[in-house]
Amino acid sequence: MHSRASESPLPEPAHDTSDPLAAVISLLRPQTVLSKVISGAGRWSVRYDAHEDPGFCLMLEGSCFLDLDGIGSIKLEEGDFILLPATPGFTMASDLGIKPKLIKPTHTNELRHGTQSGPPTMRQLGGYFRFDRTNAQLVVSFLPSMIHIRRDEPGATRLRRVVELISEETAARRPGRDLILGRLVEVLLVEALRFRPAEAAGQEKGLLAGLTDSALARALRRMHDDVAHRWTVADLARTAGMSRASFAERFMRTVGVPPMEYLLEWRIAIAKDLLRRERVSLSEVAEMIGYQSASAFSTAFSRHAGCSPSEFARSMRIGSQPHSRGHPERRGVYRPFKNGA
Questions:
Q1: Which residues form the HTH araC/xylS-type domain (predicted)?
Q2: What is the mean pLDDT of residues 46-52?
Q3: Dihedral of CA 162/167/170/175: which sign?
Q4: What percent of the chain is predicted at pLDDT more than 90?
Q5: I want to staple 144 with a disulfide (CB 3.0 to 4.6 A). Which of 188, 191, 219, 341 is the partner?
Q6: How confident is the model at residue 289 (pLDDT cuts 50, 70, 90)?
Q7: How many Cβ atoms are within 10 Å of 114's Cβ, its own excluded?
Q8: Between residues 299 and 322, which one has the greater pLDDT?
Q9: Range with the lowest mean pLDDT among 66-70, 121-125, 133-137, 193-197?
């Protein structure tokens, strides 16, 4: 890259690119939080349809079963924490043998299932929030489908404190509420992602799985530290202290995509973030993420996002979705990353 000393400074990304986990959280930009106390007594079973928003649950007392589409069923006990980066359809019940009743989300402060009178046998604090749609699908695909942290596992106590603060702030409606909730959700996500159980980390694919592998983590951090560098697989393999072939195979097996595909998708995600936030020229964005020309950047962006950078930036300004062309799997945000949760 040529020197920028004589040029006006380019806008800096809004996230810490040197820390992959911090970069993921920053691109998600958590927004409004809704939470409520959910209780149950007697025999009951309810069913919710899937929705895009991430959800969380902290068990306050008692127990219940949670059966998530595509993931399976688990028993939740007092003190357990669940985070779903994208909420699938699910059944929650006192007994999974009961036929569930389909219900719709409500905005009440408390919800009761089963017997309406008498003390509850189960209480939980449940809720959901929203991610910025610009890169949500791509970034969520870096994450596990479900994070389940039991009360006696590392980080559970800290997570409980954060969830309780979210509940208090949601109910209080004081000045600065949305700002505080956004920060609290960022903390919630970081705590949940870095303290997830080791056995779960060993079963999943994606960025978090890569960060648990010390050799791959070195390469991932170097990519994030200098995304504009003209990286090759051989360069990254040397950073990881591995042969080129071993590194490429291990990266694919652990992260779920080849190294250069990961780098390409991350560059496009950063470009979308810049185009959404800043009025910058295509040549400036191209230089920041490692393309030699605006035309090369535009071609790559169009191929993966289904629209040109200019169309994308214009759509962000008017609040609509860009028209996507080409293969139907590449309409909107391209999703090559799959997790194994």
A1: 217-315
A2: 89
A3: negative
A4: 40
A5: 341
A6: very high
A7: 19
A8: 299
A9: 193-197
Handedness of CA 219, 133, 284, 293 (dihedral sign): positive
CB 252 within 8 A of CB 336: no
3-state secondary structure the chain: CCCCCCCCCCCCCCCCCCCHHHHHHHHHCCCCEEEEEEEEECCCEEEECCECCCEEEEEEEEEEEEEECCCEEEEEECCCEEEECCECCEEEECCCCCCCEECCCCCCCEEEEECCCCCCCEEEEEEEECCCCCCHHHHHCCCCCCEEECCCCCCHHHHHHHHHHHHHHHHHCCCCHHHHHHHHHHHHHHHHHHCCCHHHHCCCCCHHHHHCCHHHHHHHHHHHHCCCCCCCHHHHHHHHCCCHHHHHHHHHHHHCCCHHHHHHHHHHHHHHHHHHHCCCCHHHHHHHHCCCCHHHHHHHHHHHHCCCHHHHHHHHHHCCCCCCCCCHHHCCCCCCCCCCC
Q: Residues 244-267: pLDDT tens digits? A: 999 999 999 998 899 999 999 889
Q: Is the pTM of this model over 0.85?
A: no
- Which amino acid is present at 38? I
- Residue 305 is predicted with a pLDDT of 86
* Domain 206-330 homologous superfamily, CATH: Homeodomain-like (1.10.10.60)
Dihedral pair phi/psi, residue 170, rounded to 5°? -65, -40
pLDDT recorded at residue 308: 92
Band the pLDDT of 98: cuts 50, 70, 90.
Answer: very high
Contacts for 284-293 with beta carbons within 8 Å, 24 or more apart?
A: 284/10, 284/11, 285/309, 287/1, 287/10, 287/228, 288/10, 288/13, 288/227, 288/228, 289/227, 289/228, 290/227, 290/228, 290/229, 290/230, 291/267
Write phi, then psi, for 49 (nearest 5 degrees).
-75, 160
- The per-residue pLDDT for 44 is 96
